[in-house]
Amino acid sequence: MSLSDTYRGLRVLDLSTYIAGPFAAMILGDMGAGVIKVERPPTGDDTRALPPRWGEGATVFLAVNRNKRSILLDIKSPEGHSALLRLVQTADVVVESFPPGLADKLALRFQDLRETNPRIVVCSITAFGDGPLGAGMPGFDALVQAVSGLMSFTGEPDSAPVRLAPSVLDLTTGMWGAIGIMGALARRAAGGGAEHVRPSLLDSAFTLMCHQVLGFLATGELPRKLGSGAPSAMPYRVYEASDGSFMLATASDAQFARLCDVLGMDALARDPRFRTMSARVAAREALDAMLAERFREQPVAAWLRRLGEAGIPAGPLNNIEQALALPVVAERELFVPPEKLRWQGGMPLLRLPIDPGGDGAATAPPKLGQHTAEVLREAGLDEALIARLSRQ
After folding, report:
1. pTM, full prediction
2. Contact 45, 60 (CB under 8 A)
3. What's the whole-number average pLDDT of the chain?
4. pLDDT of residue 389
5. Percentage of the chain modeled with pLDDT above 70
6. Residues with active-site annotation
């Protein structure tokens, strides 16, 4: 059996927008679930309008919305709301990321959906939770990075705090949402009923910072900005060679001893200031200055060859173009070709890390409202109503 057989026959309604919720729903779609993406007229998911673009599609949307059918439905209108509840009756999972208060206003809270379908699993993705404190706080990845403290120790020591460029909180919250849904489905299969899964970007941020949080609780010391460095290991950062940069990642005393041998600096391994990892972290600046001076004496290729031969973790500092050209990327078959998705004129899409063959990526991201009539017809709506809803 392949990954795409895991949830064959499962029905998912994706009412979410942006990245976190759509990513959670796409994971289920890659695992075989039938995902219906419910989009508001006239423009649909907000990410459809974002640059950069591939033809008529936005790459942010394309990245997290394959294996879905798209319908346009104004769920604020009486007929659209009624049609949505018809879809909920036949669904197993609903994924939503409504702004605070909207689910109450539209009578689409968990308890409302549970009355419609007693076996429904609802995943509500928020920025700061759905309690009274979080409900009034705005929520986007970068804002939560700032509020959670994640930005405070990201960047170079003398620079302003910076955000992590990838949408790490959106994507990890989507993963937690998918994991939570899987757990709820397993409990339902064992005799349970409806469940409400409620991941938040704030929870994801603190989980990503788990060892920094515990380090602060243990010592009372705030984590510092270390650039490419690590708080618990040294030497462990990007160094400048004579013609470029490379990453060095020594994570043990034995690796440090081998490093000193490669550098011809054996005295450092015997120096009490640097003998243990804790000592090296405490004397970070002094050790860094000596290593930085030595590394500037030779080019990157020479250092990578010598360090690699000694079994010391080190690698080049690539940009995305260089990284995609690495032989290991082709070896791992990270991309699903557009032909496999039956997507004429499309682009390759990244497979899920849990799907080695990319078999779960079966259909291309949908065009806006591409399946409206088809899905509503499956729900048993009459043709006159389908025609009216399709014009909204």
Report:
1. 0.95
2. no
3. 95
4. 84
5. 99
6. 170
